Each structure stands twice: as C-alpha cells, then as structure tokens.
Amino acid sequence: MIEKIFIRQGLKKLELDDYLAKELDRAGFTKSEIMKTPLVTRIVVNVTRPGLAIGKSGSNIAQLTRTIEERFGIDNPQLEIKEIENAALDSQAVANKIKALIEKGFSWRSVIFKIVTEIKATGAPGLEILLSGKLAGKGGRKRKQRIAYGYMKKVGEQAKLVDRGAASAYPKVGAIGIKVSIVHPDTVFPDKVDIKEAIKKVEKLREEAEAKENPVETPKETSAETKEEVKETTEKTEAKEKASPKKETKEKEAVKKTEKKEKPKEEKAKKEVAPEAKEKKAEVKEEKPREKKAEVKEEPEAKETEKKEVKDEEKKDNAKDSPIESKRKLDAEPPIVPQEQNPHGASGE
Asked: Which residues contact 127 (CB under 8 A, 6 or more apart)?
C-alpha cells in the first residue's frame, strides 16, 4: 500500500525533529525541512543562534550528519544551518522562549506581557497565546488562560496561513501547555482583499503584456556615410570650441591693456576739472547769502511804508466824518475881508 510509505516517511520526520530539538536545544531549533536530490538529501535546519549549532570549525555539524546517516538510514545527508531573521514572528521560537522562562521560575504573566509587546512591535496583525495547566501555583487547580490581540483565523482553508507553534513547560508546581498562533504582516486573507486595488493590478498586468506584444518601432540604423558625416561635424565643433577660448583670452588681454592706458588720462582730466568745479561752487555759495541778506533788508522797509500809508488813510477818513473838527477848522480859518476896488485900476500916491 502506498499509504504506508507516506506514514513511514512522516514518522521518520518526527523522530528526526525530536533528535535535532534535543541536540540543538541551546541553539534555538524550531523546525527542519528535508529535500531529496539525485545525489544528496539536503536537510535545512532553522535555528535562532547558528553559531552554537555549527560549533568549532563545523565539528557539531559533522557529528550530527554521521548520527543521522546511521540512525535514520538517510543516504548522503547534508546539513544546512539557516538563521531565523525575526525570532519574534516565529511561533515555535516564541513557544520555546516562554517554556524556558517559566521553567526558570519567572511568573507567566510577566513573561507573556513582555512577549506580546515584542510581537506587537514587529507589526503582526494578529496574535493568540493559550496556556493551560497549573497556573494558580501550589495547591491551586489547573485552569486555562487565553491572551489574544488583533485578527485571527481559526477555521477553514485560511487557517493554514497562520503560523502555529506548541511547547510544554515542566516547572516544580506542575506541567503547563503552551500554544502560540501568529499572523505575519505579509499574509493577506481572501476576505480582506480590496477589489479596486486588485482590478488596478490586473489592468497594469494587461498593459504590460500588450506593450510586450506590440513594442514601439525603433528608428532604422543610420548608414556608414551618415555616421562619418556626424563624426566630422562633431570634430569640427570640438575644434572650434577649443579655439574659441584662446581668442576670447586674447580679446580680454587687449581690452585690459586699453583700460590701463585710458585710466591715467581720465585721472588727469578729473584732477584738472576738480579745482575749477570747486571755485564755481564757492562763488555760488557766496552769491546765495548776499541775495538772502538783501531780501531780508528790503522786506522790513516795505512793511513800514505800508503801515504809514494805512495810518494816513485812516486819519483822512476820521477827519471827513467828524462835524466837530469841521467846525474847528472853520473857526480857525481867518475871515475873508472884502477889498475896495479902485475905479482907476491903480493906487495913486
């Protein structure tokens, strides 16, 4: 019967895992994988501390390969040590850690609190730890404790996507069973798929496939003659660019020489012009205060004359209006005496 062959292979695998777990307990053994090839049977061993599994210059591996070949009857076994990158996301490694700490005498509450915080820090969306046994201490009854966090699948085909591990601790009080279930950050459950994103991905894949089937036509290769012409033109342009900086340097030198010659002439002209400008400025400054003084003198004289004219006009107006002054003037004037007329027109002596 073919079924018996598969059962024997499964039992052999379990015996091998038990043997490796005892031998590599300190190295943090979690699981093994057997891959058969025509020449060699490769056994991949997952370990948290690979240095302890290898030993000094591979002595530990050599001993394990010999015993595996003799005890389990595996032809040409070849051990390959694989390090677990993130031990906090490996359920079996976590279960072994809880077991070791409880057996050392630590409280199960503090141990699990610490491990849950570590797993949360890695970004795992779901976690479940089940403890059953003598949790109450000496004299207490056995009981079960469940610690859960996030999203977890327990039934159906999707439950196979969850990483599960188990261990059993044996402290002085009594046995404690440990079960750990962790959902890795990379796992995507079918009921959590976003339809819009899935459609976009399918459309992108279709566009890429169409682009491969109908590639864009590339321009035809140029002939040898056109290539030679392009080379000649490029060489000419490079030669011109090399020659142009030399010409520019010569022109700059000529400009600098002319500027040097013109500078002393400009300085002499400025020196000659400077005294004349100073004299003109001094004359202008002298004329301005004189004009100001004359204007200041003329202004008070004009004001005095205006005041006198105003006073005279006021006096005249007052004299015309007052009747008393008119009488006084009449009284003050001498009386007019009529003169005798001489018939002869002249006075005779």
From this structure: 116, 119, 120, 147, 148, 149, 150, 152, 181, 182, 183
